[in-house]
Amino acid sequence: MKSNFLSSAFIGTGLIAVSLGAAANPAEAFSLANTEGTWNNVTLSNGSVVGLGGEAANATNNVVFRDVDGESQVRVGSAVNGWTWQENWEEETYEVETRKVEWVPKWKWNRRRRKWQDQGSYKWVTKTETKTHWVDNGWRVAQTDEIKSGQGIAGVSNLALEGGQVFSVGKLTHFNQTIWANGTDATNASLSLDLDFSDTGLGKQSFDFNINIDETLNNATTCAYATDAGKGCSDRITWDWAVDQESAFEYEGDQYTLELVGFSQQVAASSIVNDFVSQEDGNNSANLFARIVKVDTTQDIPEPASLLGLAGLGLFAVKTKKKQALKA
Fold it and tell me: What is the pTM of this model?
């Protein structure tokens, strides 16, 4: 439940067998002013859904939706180191009782010698002394959302694309912090990707995907994914479907939608992986790659067993309400 996105993050993941740009059609050109991502409807491991489709985010379910410098974030979980001490040093006075033997005088007049004489004795004497010291009268406070686990997505801007061209739709960050496995860790979250085609006259188009988060136990005997030495078990991010089957837009007489392709550390990569392995105890980032694909409404093709297995091959055939097939 938690990460450092180093080169080792890609060890053991499958490369997508595609030459980037091979499926592009020069006759199709798009201009993107910007892209933007938004998180919603987080499913927790206890089964509850937090977001517009479920309960509101609050201190009980430990979910926070927020925007930080243009990056949409969802933060989840109860951090292991969730509290800190706010110092407040103040000078205080206190009283101390001391008991010791002292000479207690007792003066008497000696008539024969015609003078006063001390006929006292040693006795136990108790005294109270006032002293001062510095005391930390601080208080325990909850730490910030930065120590929660979660994900972030930051968009890109000013893209000129050809149809079928693979491009970075934004930077996805996994905030892999150590949290308690108490039911408030997330298993998946909805990600809405908005593509602004205002320069092309298409306006903003939205596409919805479901992102899975496998938050592993740090103390597992054997880690499920490649893990850097000395760290807790790494986590993995994947998606349920690569193509939004419900959303499409029309451009010059054809229908188009968005297909997720994979992850890469590079903004322009020659190879992309289809899952994101995130090392424990840190914030790890990867570029999320996608492409705009054409919808062929003339075919009646059964739904394939796994869209993800065909990612990047241009072989998608999906069955929506109209039984549409996709081609790059």
Answer: 0.69
